[in-house]
Description:
By secondary structure, this protein is mainly alpha-helical. It has one domain. The protein is 78% helix and 0% strand. The protein is built from 3 helices and no strands. The relative contact order is 0.06. The mean pLDDT is 79.
Amino acid sequence: xxxxxxxxxxxxxxxxxxxxxxxxxxxxxxxxxxxxxxxxxxxxxxxxxxxxxxxxxxxxxxxxxxxxxxxxxxxxxxxxxxxxxxx
Length: 87
């Protein structure tokens, strides 16, 4: 009986930990969305700079996740132009 009670307590703790993690992730996503959706043009220059500093890593993370689609580099553009002229 003690062993079963211990297992139930451990399972309950794991569920609580998972629930807390989900809440924290949701809170983090809400914070990111708030930062990205802020219209920085309406802010004074100093605050605008701060928002850009906060937005940069969020945008980089989204880019790394591939949410912007294919990102072309200058070398990709050079290849496309050279292909156009090789008819």
